[in-house]
Amino acid sequence: MKTPPFHNADRRTTARKRLVRASWLALTLLGLAWTSTVWSEPIVVEPPVKLTVAPDGGERLRGWLTEYDDFDFTMKTVEGETKQIAWDSLRPDRVMWVQEKFLARDDARGWYTLGSLLYEREDGEKLAESAWKRALRIEPGLASKIDRVRDGEVVDYDEPEPEEVIEEQPGHTHTHDHGEGGSGLGGPVTVGDIQSQFWGDLSDEVMASNVEKLKAEMLEAQKKINLRLRLYEDASDYFLFYSDLPPKEARQWAGLLDEMYDRLSDIFGLEKGENIFLGRGLIIVFQNEADYHKYFLLHHQHDSRGTLGLCLSYGTGKSEVALFKQRRDLDFARVLVHEAVHMFNHRYRSYPFLPSWINEGLAEYVSSELVDKGGFGESSLARNIDYGLSLMRQNKSLGGNAFFYASHIEGHHYPMANLLTGFMIKQNGKRYQAFINGIKDGKSWEEALEDDYGVELEPLIEAFGRSVKIRDLKP
Which top-rank group of organisms is this from (predicted)? Predict the structure, then answer.
């Protein structure tokens, strides 16, 4: 039996909370856990759709629908006003009527999402089944996800089906995924044992040789995917930046990566201009999502569906980030910086990998600094800081072992890791640097925290809790 109807406002709040929880749990090692349809960017409707609606059975509004997301749509009225209208302020049949005006016949994602939206509504079940029937004609593989929604789950279109996750072993590649609405976790890519000779001080010959190897590899990759990518070698001091974006835009993003590198150099006390990469870090930005997935499938034999970007860190010392350009610059910028921080962390000082809460926390902290406070505006993920704080207030804890000892922290832990990292750096940047150095030199993070940062875990978390106005916060 279906749940009795809520008042519209209550239903919307409840749906948001459920979806936010689902999206955060879906976020992956990339640390960005990243954008899901929960806080998805609006989809622009071109040309705008003319319609008349009466939200909550009230005043009739006439105008044009210009964009929409999972929760509401934007309407430009004939009077020139801009209105945000919640989907759940319309009857289910009117929601169906409106969306039928702009959803393409072959839009499996759109019909699936519409069905999921309607299924939660009282008297919406039959309409939901109708929308899902259209989705299944286009993409029969959606049947299992639709069954899960019928069973009460919140399942995003991009969420991969559950699969066995391979346990990481020393010497395997770490793969950091951004899952849009799904875990995005395809399992680590095994590339062999760590080769320690490719860390530390490297000769100019070794550095130059590896740059040429990367260029040769990218020539082969472009042949495989039948797509020309331009190399912007002069746009960055540290990265080989390949892209099919317009040149001006590509150079902008390459410049942002150098800003990130300089900020991390400040945090870790590197000499200005010191290059820690094995020649250069490899960055590949695709204009179209389909080309991104094609690249991973044909070049890496890796299923990238459900991700916004991937960071591959190899035992040979090579580091690579590939991603596709999202419509909103600020969300794309955050993914780009976050992934590139993982590259830096992989190459910094020595090969031991940082624990997930530290790795993700630093990636979140730096991307927050450069993107959210750097003139791009507030990204989708940044808005979920409040959600992380609410969880800490509710549980009086960061999550215990699930936070500090997880191989990959959960998505809802990312804002906590961000805030904790920022607190540690602001309290004493030199000690934070020594803390990371201790881990990279072979200490456990607990030993490095006590020996090099100078505090045990519980007092640290208690002080952190006071800084965010949460008393008696526990690890």
Answer: Bacteria
Please say if the pLDDT value at position 7 is more than 60: no
CA pair distance 150, 168, nearest whole angstrom: 34
% of the chain at pLDDT higher than 70: 81
Residue for token pair 């395997």 = 172
Q: Is the pTM above the cut of 0.70? A: no
Q: CA 208, CA 240: separation in Å to the nearest integer?
A: 12
- Close Cβ partners of 258 (under 8 Å, ≥ 6 residues apart): 236, 237, 238, 239
Q: Are 438 and 451 spatial neighbours (Cβ–Cβ below 8 Å)?
A: yes
- The Cα 366–Cα 363 span in angstroms is 6
Q: HSE-up of 178 (CA within 13 Å, CB side)?
A: 30
Backbone angles phi, psi at 4, to 5 degrees: -60, 155
Q: Is 310 left (phi over 0), alpha (psi -120 to 50) or beta?
A: beta
- CA gyration radius for the chain? 24
pLDDT in tens, 150-176: 888 888 887 765 543 323 333 333 444
Spell out the domains of the chain, with CATH numbers in brackets.
37-150 (no CATH), 174-467 (3.40.30.160)
Helix (H, G, I), strand (E, B) or coil at 145: helix
The burial of 327, by beta-carbon neighbours within 10 Å (0-12 exposed, 13-18 middle, 19 or more buried), is given as exposed
Determine the Cα–Cα distance for residues 3 and 419; give it in Å rounded to an integer.
37
Listed residue (462, 444, 344) closest to 404, CA to CA? 444
**Hey, how many other C-beta atoms are within 10 angstroms of the C-beta on 350?**
14
Q: Say if residue 374's pLDDT is above 80.
A: no
